[in-house]
Amino acid sequence: NTGDIRNSPVIELMKLIEKEGMHFSWYDPLVTPNPDFEFVDSQLQKLDKETQFDLVVIGAWHEHFEIEDQIRISSLLKDNGVLVDGRKYLDKHEIANLKTLGIRYIGVGR
Asked: pTM of the predicted model, to two decimals?
């Protein structure tokens, strides 16, 4: 796990989302805000239950994201929201837990 995102495939995803004119926010607890990073204005400093999204994409999974974080992540989704696991980090048990919370899950990768 690292805070260096220069070569992260998530950067390309953010560029594609921006190109399509969609609004987004991103969160990575290991990355410190850097004014030179082009997406610094859209960085969430923490996961906040008051903000809700249509879609949450997990582009990287860190060891300290535990089941409590999955519940917090699910609370970020609007009703009928979708969670995209871009690296298939979640196992079958974790996916089942999310589905019991009413989260639509899409796993991509591996």
From this structure: 0.71
> Under 8 Å CB-to-CB from 3, ≥6 apart: which residues?
28, 30, 31, 32
Mean pLDDT of successive 10-residue segments in the chain (110 residues)? Answer: 70 86 80 70 66 81 63 78 83 85 82
Beta-carbon contacts of residue 1 (< 8 Å; ≥ 6 apart): 30, 62, 63
Q: Which two tokens stand for residue 91?
A: 């196992």
Q: Which tokens in the block code for residue 45?
A: 């400093």
Q: Which of 4, 46, 39, 1 is nearest to 22 (CA)?
A: 39
SS3 category, 47 = coil
The three state secondary structure string of 40-63 is HHHECCCCCCCCCEEEEEECCCCC
